[in-house]
Fold this protein.
Amino acid sequence: MTAWHVQRLDPDDAEERALRRMGARAVAGVDEVGRGSLAGPVVAGAVILPAGWIPAGVRDSKLLKAAARERLDAEIRARAVAWAIGVVGPALIDRMNILQATVLASQLAIARLGVRPDALLLDALEIAYLHMVQRSLVGADRLCASVAAASIVAKVARDRMMDAYEAEFPGYGFARNRGYAAPEHLAGLRALGPTLIHRRTFLHVEVVDDCVQDRFWEEIDG
């Protein structure tokens, strides 16, 4: 793996083709979104693309505007051999830690595929106890078309969840910051305290939660 590879923007299907030459009939790309967020779930996508088909304009979901992601998401879901998502919520993230939760979300997405893959392409992740070929690459969402497609499916699904949380928990800007540590979100945390979808073990949330509890006991004692 070279620096040039990681900085590529337009993924191709070279890794998928290499795995097929080794005998894999169905190669699934797997990627997650929401790993560094302070609130909401971590969501993994798994996508098996038809051999030889790369969605026009597919890229790492973080590099695409919302309209392009929505268009590609619809096209991928319509034309993929199979696609699925796995979701792990904040309470379980707090119990497991974010790395294990990411692995679990990925396992769920793979298990829910309508076609069982023979091989996996993953973005800097390894999944134990799966009896299939796994190829883990740093920056796989910028290298492999199926991993980029998985990142798009996961991102669009999670964004829709955060839009719904914006209506349920106003004041944090979830529809704009998606639960990440943006100034608007941190200001909402300081003013309102954590919600049910905040990850209590994450630093910014943990600190604010302690401050809210301190204010509560000061008011009780006062």
Remarks:
- The first strand starts at residue 27 and ends at 33.
- The beta strands are 27-33, 42-48, 82-88, 119-123, 133-137.
- The chain is about 45% helix and 15% strand.
- The chain has two domains: 3-166, 170-221.
